Amino acid sequence: MNPPLVELRLWRQFAAVAETLHFGRAAERLNMTQPPLTQGIAQLERLLGVRLFDRTKRSVQLTEAGAALLPEAQALLSRALALPAQARAAAQGEAGHLRLAFVSTVGFSLLPAWVRAYRAEHPHTRLELVEATGDVQLPAIERGEIDAGFLLHSPGFAPAGLAHLRIAREPLVLALPEQHPLAVARNLSLARVMDEPLVLFPRRILPSLHDALFGLYHAAGREPRVAQEAIQMQTIVNLVSAGLGLAWVPESVRQFQRPGVAYRTLGGAQGLKVPRCETSLAWRPEPGSALARFVAFARRQVAPG
User: Fold this and answer.
1) Do domains 96-166+286-302 and 168-278 have the same CATH topology?
2) Fold entry, domain 8-91
3) Range 96-166+286-302 classified under CATH 3.40.190.10
4) Could you give the angle at which helices 8-20 and 64-91 cross, rounded to 10 degrees?
5) What is the DSSP letter of 196?
6) Rounded distance, CA 232 to CA 102, Å?
7) Distance CA 155, CA 215 (A)
8) Long-range CB pairs of 139-142, under 8 A, 24+ apart, other chains included
9) Using an 8 Å Cβ cutoff, are 220 and 269 in contact?
10) How much of the chain, in percent, has pLDDT values that exceed 90?
């Protein structure tokens, strides 16, 4: 047997009487006369099969069942009052669910500030953040499993079939074990670095930057000595601290202050130039309203001035 369907009107009448404990004052609050209010309460009690009020000629008191129902009825009415505003917010892209993926380097500086600012600007939008490498992000965006992603790549890379916005550009710096002689060398050259073993990310997760680094070594007639591969930048830096090799990392990784690791900046030499890297926001064309607002927000963050 299905439970009785109770109109919102009856819950509103119940709450008014329960809060005033007076049928006359409750009727005034509801802009109605007392007889239909009395009939409405009686109808509600019949539908529920319980008595909600103990009534005498001089007083009105909530029964135990009525007292238990009052907070729930008040919460129901509050949610009902909020529905129009929520509907308007959803239509304008202010509400909804936005799924954003990010690479670990974005989490060092950019992401926390952006999340705080976006939540303050769009408090009704629920943000779901997922850390994922580029090889995971791109197919997930194409399948609609995430709405947009922050990707790390070499300059000039453009994800096929996706819209994108460049967020930041930064140089690569060298992470070295703190006790390594090159960490304190007065003159640190590319030639001295290129004979050292490397801790490097696999090509599959960051092919454009992987190829740019290999291109740097090949242009110098060298072959990179990859001693260890790791996926996350934090893991790469930890392995550098353990002495497994040196690592080329985005400059923003300097903020990951791992004990035992030093960072050095190298310039170019003999026509060789250390690659730079970029971070971009990528998303499927024709985004929904919530994503469109986030893209507009992102454009404002990177606009000059």
Assistant:
1) yes
2) Arc Repressor Mutant, subunit A (1.10.10)
3) yes
4) 130
5) S
6) 12
7) 14
8) 140/101, 141/101, 141/282, 141/283, 141/284, 142/284
9) no
10) 68
Q: Where are the domains of the chain?
A: 8-91, 96-166+286-302, 168-278
Looking at residue 256, its amino acid is F
Residues in Cβ contact with 31 at an 8 Å cutoff, skipping those fewer than 6 apart: none
Superfamily of domain 168-278: Periplasmic binding protein-like II (3.40.190.10)
The pLDDT value recorded for residue 272 is: 83
Q: Is the dihedral of CA 136, 140, 141, 146 positive or negative?
A: negative
DSSP assignments along 85-124, one per residue: HHHHHHHTTSSEEEEEEE-GGGGGTHHHHHHHHHHHH-TT
Distance between CA atoms of residues 170 and 153, nearest Å: 11
pTM over 0.85: no
Crossing angle, helix 34-48 and helix 8-20, to 10 degrees?
Answer: 110
Integer Cα distance of 197 and 220 in angstroms: 16
Q: Which stretch of 43-52, 158-167, 182-191 has the lowest confidence by average pLDDT?
A: 182-191
Which residue type is seen at 260?
G
Strand ranges (DSSP E) for 103-235? 125-131, 148-153, 163-177, 197-200, 225-229
